[in-house]
Amino acid sequence: xxxxxxxxxxxxxxxxxxxxxxxxxxxxxxxxxxxxxxxxxxxxxxxxxxxxxxxxxxxxxxxxxxxxxxxxxxxxxxxxxxxxxxxxxxxxxxxxxxxxxxxxxxxxxxxxxxxxxxxxxxxxxxxxxxxxxxxxxxxxxxxxxxxxxxxxxxxxxxxxxxxxxxxxxxxxxxxxxxxxxxxxxxxxxxxxxxxxxxxxxxxxxxxxxxxxxxxxxxxxxxxxxxxxxxxxxxxxxxxxxxxxxxxxxxxxxxxxxxxxxxxxxxxxxxxxxxxxxxxxxxxxxxxxxxxxxxxxxxxxxxxxxxxxxxxxxxxxxxxxxxxxxxx
Length: 327
Hints:
Blueprint: H1 9-20, E1 24-25, H2 26-33, H3 37-49, E2 53-55, E3 60-63, H4 66-99, E4 108-112, H5 114-127, E5 131-136, H6 150-156, E6 160-166, H7 167-171, H8 175-185, E7 188-192, E8 199-202, E9 206-211, E10 220-225, H9 228-243, E11 245-246, H10 249-252, H11 269-279, H12 284-291, H13 295-309, H14 314-323
Parallel strand pairs: 5-6, 6-7
Antiparallel strand pairs: 1-3, 2-3, 4-10, 5-8, 7-11, 8-9, 9-10
Helix pairs in contact: 1-3, 2-3, 11-12, 12-13, 13-14
């Protein structure tokens, strides 16, 4: 827990032992922790150096009050971060001045290889201060579902995230589960039939565009800095976001449904989830699998909903459902 303050986990264990048993000796701590005495002594030396542990003349050790000792380290860390932020702002301004008036080729970096793309993907997300926007397409190449550790980290920093995903993503084996996890974290998602590319936008400053490659070819991507081309990608994202169908958590999460709810006078909760997923563009087979019902049961429910709405086709049902808040 104290690694962010420069305290290694094995050193933190010794610190906690000293706090819990003031007046302990190095040998006593080694026995209590069942670790070699040399390791305990090295940990105590490190703790004394940063002021977390105080040695006595009789060879015993006492922990400094955590609120004071750790508070000082945290304050020092904050000061260091503020200096780093000032340096970042200065370097960013210096960089903008250096590239002002230069050709678009100076604002583009070509990235090749899976490891390099993954690294840049994480960096672009960490660079966002206000919002991350992404196009998510199928198939996954560089980053598989569950591997994007930068998403929860960005949300914890207060960065908003919007995703536009294509329908094929939800048909992937892990696609729906990943969408559910993102929605639970607070990510906003919309679905479109198809996307022209993969894309990551960090605020209006950076964009990463993975490139399609021939089978067996080396994956590549383009990293763009603020430019007219990046502005075009910004506009493209917003246009497709406006067109997309909002994906709601309630439509994806599994839950127990009563078989008798088909007898209600209006759409049941299961019916609403079916409509929501179909309006998002999923096929009957994918929706039935996701909701754990048979294809025949799903189609029977849809026929009943058409009767309730007084319509003759799926297209008319979708229009009616959207207009009457059925999904």
